[in-house]
Amino acid sequence: MMIKSGKVSARKSKRGAPGLILSTVAWDMRFLWGLALELRPHNIATVALAPGFMRTERVMSYANGEADWKKVPWLKDSESPEYSRGAVAALAADRSLMRRSGKALHVGELARQYGFTDIDGRTVPEFIMREQFVDMVKNFQQQNS
User: Fold this and answer.
1) CA-based torsion, 40, 42, 43, 45: positive or negative
2) 97 — phi, psi (to 5°)?
């Protein structure tokens, strides 16, 4: 059973597997950490899922109409919105999930650990904002204005 409320989701476990509560909002981390302490005795894990640089509609709107994201240099290490599904499925199936409870988990790191890929077959690295990336986006926008 999956329960969704805003950006927090919960899954009730079946057949003795740990339950799972996850969030994709960074400010929920303190809440999820406290919840992890409260729910550990009930075998329910809570995690904050940290997706990478995702090709949302808004992100793609900055590509100046370029439909093929592979042609846009600053989208090279981006991920599809579907990539996070692999992380959720892997976590939900993990019998030792409780060891991750109360932590923030990068989707890219989970992909390496669990072996899932994005819809194009790539394992996208975890996203870490770097000044070089910001400069690349600005340059791309200036060149295509």
Assistant:
1) negative
2) -60, -30
pTM for the model = 0.70
Q: In sequence order, what are the beta bridge partners of 104?
A: 48
37 vs 23: CA distance, rounded Å: 16
Where are the extended beta strands (E) located within 6-140?
8-11, 19-23, 44-50, 103-106
| Residue 77 contacts residue 127 (beta carbons within 8 Å) | yes
Per-residue pLDDT of the chain (145 residues; tens, 9 = 90+): 343 444 545 555 556 666 766 665 555 677 778 888 998 999 989 888 889 889 888 888 887 766 778 888 888 889 998 999 999 999 999 999 999 998 889 999 999 999 999 999 999 988 776 666 667 677 777 776 6
- Rounded to 5°, the CA angle 16-20-22 comes to 175
Span between the terminal Cα atoms of the chain, in Å: 48
